[in-house]
Amino acid sequence: MNNDIISVRQLTKKFGAFKAVDNISFEVKRGEIFGFLGANGAGKTTALKMLIGLLTPTSGGATVAGYDVVRQPDRVKQRIGYMSQRFSLYEDLTIRENIRLYGGIYGLANTEIREKTTQMLEKLDLKAQADTLVGSLPLGWRQKLSFTVALLHDPGVVFLDEPTSGVDPLTRRQFWDLIYEAAHQGVTIMATTHYMDEAEYCDRVSIMVDGRIEVLDTPRNVKSQLGAQTMDEAFRILARPQTTTI
Amino acid sequence: MNLRRLQSFFIKEFRHILRDRRTLLILFGMPLAQVLLFGFVLSNEIKNADIAVLDQSKDTESIALTNKLVSSGYFRVARTLESARDLEPAFRSGKIKMAFVFPPGFGHQLAHEGNAPLQIIADASDPNTATTLMQYAQAIIQDFQLDRAGARTEGRAIIQVQTRMQYNPEQKAVFTFVPGVITLILMLVSAMMTSITIAREKELGTMEVLLVSPLQPLEIILGKTSPYLLLSLSSTVLVIFLSMAIFGMPIRGSLVLLAMECILYTFVALSLGIFISTRAKDQMTAMFMSALGLLMPTMLLSGFIFPRESMPWVLQVIGMAIPATWFNPIVKGVMIKGVGLEILWFETLVLVGMALFFMFLSLRNFKDKLE
Fold it and tell me: Comparing C-alpha atoms, which of A206, A233, A232, A201 is closest to residue A217?
């Protein structure tokens, strides 16, 4: 078994004549925190959605956790976690009910669900809120909860689509602590973000511009390659020639 | 198909419904209100209609006929007019629905010539009421005539008409409305609510997470629809129970057949709901599509309120595409006439066809991808 948990080969997605993702190839190693950066509309979310089976590639392909995303989507789905850009839990259900639901959907046994619920509530310090409707929790807590729920079925890899948008800096920091913890336990993290300070937390980052991957390396190497002090600067250098949007 | 996944989804769906007061109100408050409204308020029967009498004869015959009209319970003399000029103002004031004009010498002419004119004027600004009252009046007058004829003329052939309103002798309006309400509620709950709840998942973005999960499209569809199947059937039981308890509505046919037909029709409605949700991106659109595309035709074109026979042929043809057009006669047939499949097989077959067609269509259109 090779060490690449995600392997992308010439992945392309066209919407009509528009190439949202243009022939990208890369590998992600087991246990890695991989940052998928790019301006809005650069194609990072489209690429991510092809990897989790929400979009069908126009050409090229990818394997995730050892399975082909086009031909074996069901095997892939059982082995990945996903946290979407929008809030993925049900606001009219309590924390406990949400965990129960996702546990059931991913085929966990009832005793397992109960154990995990206790663990999670302790870890997130939400014991007292176990039977509170999720809709009444502050946004930061909801995001942390929704990340933990995405890890409920012990997936090999978790896809996070803009997980921290709209969250205050302190909560973002706490959120990344959770990500580190998961990575330490061997979970591969693939996250899209447009916060450049978050890019510094990743093991490797790729920066997408107009559907193509312009650089892919460790944050340190990306910066020295482009002669930039910060990731933010590196990003501006890359993005400027092609487009004015940041 | 995985029962464990389906069960979790089913429980979640039930929680959504039980936590949403609006949904509960639509599920159980509306059927209740509709049965009571249609039962008590919308009645075809008219009692104590106000009439005016302009009696220019004032003899035993005209007085006897007036008394007979009043004693029937359908009419009440609100005005006694002295001149034909008073007729128009009486109608204009809205105080009377009908006027009876006896010409001078009414009784005399009836006795000597065997016939006499009588003018009845009805306020046709409300044609339904006017027609009904006219029928009452003519029936009473005919009865009056027969009495007189029987007493006087011997050897003359007279047809004695005996009428019977089969299946609903008292002509209770509830009998027509209850099947209509059942038709409407099953459509409303099953189609509208399912389309809204699926559209809600899309709107909130939770659908994405469900699609990324191991849940199969069929499991999502079953998990979404089965709670509404249960709820709309219990809502139907409520309607039938109420109409039996309060209005004495009978179930003359097979209860099992009625239940099966309700389930069949609910399947049609649920598939329509899913089909709508595959087209609608948000809850608002889903609601408008089902209100305009399903509820309005069900109310207006299925024969629930307006008889299909009196519609222009274009509307009759359109009406044939509406499930309720076929379901309504089934409910009426089973409940009121007590007939079974030997009569209703064709309607049932049409519904089966519709169920298969729309299920195929909705399954084919339900996407497990975002595109």
Answer: A206
Out of B8, B19, B205, closest to residue A100 by CB:
B8
The alpha-carbon gap from B227 to the nearest alpha carbon of chain A, in Å, equals 16
Instruction: Output the pTM of the full model.
Output: 0.79
Closest-approach residue (CA) in chain B for A86: B205
Contact check, Cβ <8 Å, B205/A87: yes
Chain B partners within 8 Å of A90 (Cβ): 12, 16, 206
H or E element at residue A33? strand A33-38
How many C-beta neighbours within 10 Å does residue A242 have? 13
Q: What letters, b where the CB count within 10 A reaches 16 and e where it falls short, cover B292-315?
A: ebbbebbbebbbbeeebeebeeee
Q: In whole angstroms, how large is the CA radius of gyration of chain B?
A: 28
Separation of alpha carbons A201 and A220, rounded Å: 11
Question: Are B213 and A84 in contact (CB < 8 Å)?
Answer: no
Cα A234 from Cα B134, distance rounded (Å):
91
Q: What is the pLDDT of residues A211-234, one digit of tens each?
A: 999 999 999 999 999 888 888 888
Site of tokens 């090229």: A60
The two beta strands, A4-15 and A59-64, are antiparallel
pLDDT in tens, B137-194: 988 888 888 887 765 555 556 676 777 878 877 777 778 788 888 888 888 888 988 9
Q: Which of B2, B8, B211 sits opposite A101 (nearest CB)?
A: B8
What number is the average pLDDT over the span B33-37?
Answer: 83
Nearest CA in chain B to A98: B12
Q: How many CB atoms lie within 10 A of CB A118?
A: 12
CB-nearest partner of A104 from B8, B16, B19: B8
- A-chain residues near B5 (CB < 8 A): 104-105, 107
Rounded Cα gap, residues A160 and A167, in angstroms: 14
Q: Per the CB < 8 Å rule, is A84 touching B369?
A: no
Contact B45, B94 (CB under 8 A): no
- Quick check: A52 and B205 CB within 8 A? no
Output the furthest CA–CA distance in chain B (Å, rounded).
Answer: 94
% of chain B surpassing 70 pLDDT: 95
Calpha distance B214→B2 (Å, rounded): 10
Q: What are A's interface residues with B at a Cβ cutoff of 8 A? A: 49, 52-56, 74, 77-78, 80, 82, 84-93, 97, 100-107
DSSP A87: -
Secondary structure class of B209 (helix, strand, coil): helix
Taking CA atoms, A107 is separated from A153, B9, B21, B210, in Å, by 8, 12, 31, 14
Closest to B206 (Cβ–Cβ): which among A53, A90, A106? A90
Element (H, E) at B275: helix B255-279
Checking phi first, is residue B365 left (phi over 0); if not, alpha (psi -120 to 50) or beta?
alpha
Q: Bin A15: left if φ > 0, else alpha if -120 < ψ < 50, else beta.
A: beta
CB B176 within 8 A of CB B243: no
